[in-house]
Amino acid sequence: MEEQPELTLDQLDALTAEVNVHAGPGSPGWVGETSHTQRFTAAVIDAFRTNDGIVPGELASMGGADRHPPWYYNVAANPVCTVEWQGETFTARAVIHSGVERDRLFAGVVRIMPVFGEYETRTDRVMPVVEFIRLQDA
Predict the structure, then answer these.
(1) How far apart are alpha carbons 33 and 46 in whole angstroms?
(2) Which of 31, 77, 117, 129 has the most other CB atoms within 10 Å of its CB?
(3) At 79, which CATH number?
(4) How far is CA 76 from CA 8, 29, 68, in A?
(5) Do residues 52 and 119 share a domain?
(6) Is 71 exposed, middle or buried (0-12, 13-18, 19+ CB in 10 A)?
(7) pLDDT tens-digit profile of 53-85?
């Protein structure tokens, strides 16, 4: 098994650089090796599950990169997803907010985690706000 990277700001910067140059699966020249993004994501998932839903360090919105993080494109294309939250796993629908509602929700996030406001100052893109709404069991 490949070594998973530490969850540090340097690793987040490396992930951001990879996304900005479109490296990884689906990019031109991709030959099938595990990308930094995949290793980083595996480390985040492992930390999340090991620490009861808490991931050490600051992880958010690609640190203000010029592109949205890969997970954003995944939920935009496939809004029905599996969510793990507080020891529970369930199906949810991702709702990407925009306009006034997005701004209101983002302001609330920044109050709780000011680093998101800092990230937003580093980019011209509008940082996404995604709400995951639990789907009722069928």
Answers:
(1) 20
(2) 129
(3) 2.30.110.10
(4) 27, 25, 11
(5) no
(6) middle
(7) 777 666 676 778 888 887 888 899 999 999 988
Q: Using a CB cutoff of 8 Å and minimum separation of 24, what contacts does 52-59 make?
A: 52/87, 53/84, 53/85, 53/86, 53/87, 55/7, 56/7, 57/7, 57/8, 57/9, 57/12, 58/9, 58/12, 58/115, 59/7, 59/12
- Give, in order, the Cα–Cα distances in Å from 27 to each of 22, 31, 86: 6, 9, 35
Residue 125 domain boundaries: 64-138
Backbone angles phi, psi at 27, to 5 degrees: -90, 155
Q: For residue 93, what are its two tokens?
A: 């629908």
> What residues contact residue 81 under an 8 Å CB cut-off, 6+ apart?
74, 75, 91, 92, 93, 94, 132
Q: Pull the structure tokens for residue 91.
A: 């199906």
